[in-house]
Amino acid sequence: MLAHTQIGVEKYLALELPDGPEPDYVHREVVERGLPMPIHSRIQALLCLLFARLRQEVTLDLLPELRVRIEPRPFRVNDFAVYRDSRPQSRHATDPAFVAVEIVSPDDHYHNITQRLEDYRRWGVPHVWLIDPWLKKLYEFTDAGLLQRASLTLPDLDFTLSAEDVFRDV
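Given the sequence above, the corresponding structure tokens read:
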């Protein structure tokens, strides 16, 4: 088990873990992430399909399970990231995404999820979203905190992601 193992950045970046999801790196500790289930993967695939429609109008890079470096630390592995007009070029993204989406896993804890979302917001991600497939709810994380929404929107792209779209086949 890797939870609460303190190592340096280079050792973290060199980790090879074939049996589980890539861990985060927070406060010099390797932190295990919740084990995704098929419902998690289905939502990632659905997000790819829904966002793909926008790719005809604007340059988007759709990246599930993307490792990002939030300066100067931590490293997070984003469930789903959307980059607009640019794409990460190195081993991990160093620029904020346009949209960062986290999908709740059964063993996720509220504090850990909100800390992760706060890291993205503080880093400069303009659209930070949380999808809870267990409660079938959508949330937006803003300066005011975690806000439940009937749909998630990107007004400047005329894009709406409704709960019905996300949870139809879940």
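The CA atoms of residues 100 and 128 lie 5 Å apart. Try to locate this feature in the token string yourself.
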